[in-house]
Amino acid sequence: MNEVKDLEGWLMPWLNQYVPQFAKLAYTGIALGLIVIMSLGIHFVLHRVVLRWVEGRTRGTQRIWRRAFFERKLFGRLALTLQGIIIYIQAGLWLESGTLLLPSIQTAANLWILLYALLSLYSLLDALLDIFRQRPAMRAFPLRGIFQSVKLLASIFIGLLIVSTLIGKSPVILLSGLGAMTAVLMLVFKDPILGLVAGIQLSANDMLAVGDWLEMGRYGADGEVIDIGLTTVKVQNWDHTITTIPTHALISDSFKNWRGMSESGGRRIKRSLRLDATSVRFLDEEDIRRLQKAHLLDGYLSDKVREISRHNSEQPADMSSLVNGRRLTNLGTFRAYLAALLRQHPHIHQQMTLMVRQLESGSEGIPIEIYAFTSTTRWAEYENIQADIFDHIFAVLPEFDLRLHQNPTGFDLRMLAGVSAAGSYKKVV
Fold first, then answer.
1. What is the pLDDT of residues 337-380, one digit of tens each?
2. Domain chopping of the chain, boundaries
3. How far is the C-alpha of 76 from the C-alpha of 112, rounded, in Å?
4. 316: CB partners within 8 A, 6+ apart
5. Number of helices (H) and strands (E), helices first, in the chain?
6. What is the pTM of this model?
7. Distance (Å, rounded) from C-alpha 269 to C-alpha 345?
8. What is the CATH number of domain 267-412?
């Protein structure tokens, strides 16, 4: 108040001399002019000099936090908050407390300060989110949902302060009245509250992180998680469409996370081919000599022939009958060939489960299943490896005198019709 008295004591005699009727009004106008001029000067210094100088020093810097703070306009909003504080102080210094203009300016300044303080907090949280996203160790945490919760709470708190400033009442009075509105608030903010709790559970249990491959059939989601928010999780599907899932649904419903597959370094091949049961038979000596030319079967057949010969020589059974003794089959030899093929394949993970098994046969033939893991988890490479293996399997089946089981096709029917027509023609002739 000493500054007000000094300014008033210096100006008022001069104003009373020249404009005695409008001395008070003229003094108020001069005080407002000083406030505007000083505010514009401070605005120019902060935004045109200080911030530009700091921004120029951060250009080309490798420090992520500097770039993030400027991209999110943190310093600019802090400067505007500081300007509001300066205007509030200036109004108290230059204007008399008895004037009606002082509380109006201070109220407007208070609203200005609260608004830009909230926006500054938003910028700070967004900048911190950008910084943490650059750190691999922090990507597993649903920081976006947590920061959105902080923004929501800060917005409610600032909103209460703004209302209390406008009505001139203490915010404690407003808070005391919120007790009766608890049920309404719980209903309005149900999704954010559920999302906040779900985000904490997802993070604490390490269930989901940005970058994971998520599959959730109920919501049609099958792709990479690109964002975990307070109320929704965004998934970019394999066809580049975007699916949004309520965050709390990830806790209440089940979903499949492919992160374990990606981190293991191998992707599973679990596919079967069905063989015609009528093509299964014992191998004769000529078949064994022919198949021993395959380097993948040479060692297996030699060892197996010795083992079976030793076993059969110890049995007093008549070996001229196929039902007596042990014999090699084309199906068993084919399974051994597939196992050897997978063990020497350069793109099959040899430290993971690898087997060729025969499943229960039925009307659709005899299923032979390949169960192995590729040494890559990339989708396109995985599909190419799997296709190459089965291309080779289909092509090598005739070497074992085995046939695939399949329903009759149009080609089969045409061949059958052609044979029938040829037989009828011979009968006529």
1. 999 999 999 999 999 999 999 999 888 899 999 999 999 988 88
2. 2-134, 204-257, 267-412
3. 14
4. none
5. 17, 8
6. 0.55
7. 13
8. 3.30.70.100
